[in-house]
Write a structure and sequence with these properties.
Layout lengths: L1 H56 L6 H34 L6 H11 L9 E3 L9 H17 L2 E11 L2 E10 L5 H12 L2 H10 L1 E8 L2 E9 L1
């Protein structure tokens, strides 16, 4: 089972690298839209304001060619402003459509199912309706790798608690070893996992910290999901 999981994760890693590149490109596109919105609408708005003033200052006895020129400039400026606004709105709408809402609870359940780990939804407690604020695929990847690490050390997940603290969400995985507890070994495995390049890149992108705690004969893995 472990070898099959590893093969699945190796394939997932390739997809995750593409996913990271895609999300970074999406952020660049979002910044570009914001920049274009400012660079286009501001000067066009100023130009429209200026042509309105020019048109209002032209009297009935003004040269017809001058009045026609002012009218053409005013109409062209209005059309450019409308087109610019439409382009920007279309781009923003495209970005909005790409957003999908997930609950942290559903992401966790999906991670367990993907690798056939037995876990019932009633063992997820706390803020179970908390919304995931970052990419679900990357979060699923992190949780999946953590579950594989625990499985290799014959460690099971007893329960999961979702907590809202200040401006971040914390996911606590309460875990218990089937054999005699070996906190040092598990701590070493987690350290090695966090040094893995793709895993580290995902943590940095999501601004996630993962720490291990030992308490009351339980090993608590605290997954800090920053908003």
């Amino acid at each position: 089972m472990i070898s099959e999981q590893q093969n699945t994760l190796e394939q997932l890693e390739n997809y995750i690298r593409l996913r990271l590149n895609y999300l970074k490109l999406q952020e660049d596109f979002k910044s570009f839209v914001s920049s274009v919105s400012h660079d286009l609408t501001s000067p066009l708005g100023y130009l429209k304001f200026s042509t309105d003033i020019l048109t209002s200052q032209l009297g009935d006895d003004a040269n017809e060619d001058i009045k026609e020129t002012a009218r053409v400039i005013a109409n062209s400026t209005f059309k450019l402003s409308e087109d610019a606004i439409q382009i920007i709105n279309d781009a923003k709408l495209k970005l909005e459509k790409q957003k999908k809402s997930w609950l942290i609870k559903d992401m966790l359940i999906s991670s367990f199912k993907d690798f056939e780990f037995k876990f019932t939804v009633n063992r997820i407690i706390g803020k179970i309706e908390a919304e995931l604020k970052s990419d679900v695929v990357l979060n699923n990847y992190l949780i999946s790798f953590i579950l594989i690490m625990l499985s290799e050390q014959e460690v099971g997940v007893n329960s999961i608690q979702i907590v809202e603290l200040d401006e971040m969400m914390i996911i606590n995985l309460d875990i218990l070893e089937k054999k005699s507890p070996n906190f040092e070994l598990l701590e070493s495995k987690l350290k090695a996992l966090k040094q893995k390049e793709i895993f580290r890149d995902v943590c940095e992108y999501l601004s996630v910290e993962i720490n291990l705690y030992e308490k009351d004969f339980l090993i608590r893995l605290s997954y800090n999901l920053l908003n």
